[in-house]
Amino acid sequence: MGVEASSHGFAVTKYFIRCYIKIFIIILVTAPELVKGVIFMSKNKSTKILVQCALFLAMALVLRNFSYMVFMGGGAGMRLGVSGFFSKMPAILFGPMYGAAVSGLTDLFGYVLKPDGPYIFPVTLTAALGGAMSGLIFRFAKKRSVQTIQKLYAGVVIAVAAFGAVNHICIVKFPECMWTQILIGLKSKTVYFTYGLYVVAILGTVFFIINMVLQKKFKASFMNEYMRLFVTFLIADVTVTTLNTFILIWFIPALANLPFMTFFLPRLAQEIVAVFMHSFVIAYLYDVFKRFNKIEQN
Q1: 128, 106 in Cβ contact below 8 A?
Q2: pTM of the complete model
Q3: Of 16, 70, 117, 274, which cross-links 76 as Cys (Cβ 3.0–4.6 Å)?
Q4: Is 7 helix (H, G, I), strand (E, B) or coil?
């Protein structure tokens, strides 16, 4: 019985992945016409922004209906979907205020249209927070060169690895040190501040290499924004995913029975994959948007 349920779940997941790939291709093919229609809809700037945000919200809600909820331990664990392609666009185009509004409304209206489990208001707040963070971080990132962003990213990865190494050395060589006593006092969680940081640094290095390869492979103009968007979404989305993990454990009793890392790591892995996809597609949409804006101004 358990094997049949497992194989059925795998088949359903495979089906939805195929659907997402098809939707992904459709977005890439139809994006120029969608964006062109959005831009030429109104001449008044403030009205145009509101109309554009409403259209991005509508497209995000349509795509959210194709999402698939993965249940873990008897509770809603994580959502697989591609609505973020459009719910994140207002933050990138118009700033944190619009990003927060559209992201929050996508979560709220998305639940009304397709509820999966109980409604949890703090999750809507973290969705709005993620939109605001994306807008703020990208506003900072787009004023810096890609090389500067890459150096900052590499510096953070090195700092994480160095912090893990310092903690490890303190525990092994200086057991009487006050900092060592604090780390040891964490008991089983001490490993998060040594080997856990090593894993984060290794993954950060792998992501950096993948991004460099992608930038060299795809020499299209939209790749100029790819690294900026990757860093933007990595910070914002991992923050939101971490907060939501605690919120879901707090509000859904079934999830509280799961070990924290058993629940958190799959969610984190899914979010990082989503960051790659969002960065690539939104970089493309952002480039299309800028090109049509130039056409309209001319």
Answers
A1: no
A2: 0.77
A3: 117
A4: helix
DSSP symbols for 111-149: HHHS--SS--HHHHHHHHHHHHHHHHHHHHHTTS-HHHH
Structure tokens belonging to residue 197: 């940081």
How many domains are there within the chain?
1
d(CA 14, CA 84): 20
pLDDT at 5 over 50: no
CA distances (Å), 229 to each of 37, 137, 150, 187, in order?
A: 24, 9, 12, 37
Domain housing 106: 2-142+225-297
Structure tokens at 175: 């057991």
Q: Go through the chain and tell me how many residues it has.
A: 298
| CATH number for the domain that contains residue 248 | 1.10.1760.20
Rounded Cα gap, residues 42 and 115, in angstroms: 34
Indicate whether 237 belongs to any domain.
yes
H/E element, 72: strand 68-72
C-alpha torsion 245→251→255→258, nearest 10? 70
- Among 215, 267, 214, 263, which residue's Cα sits nearest to residue 237? 267
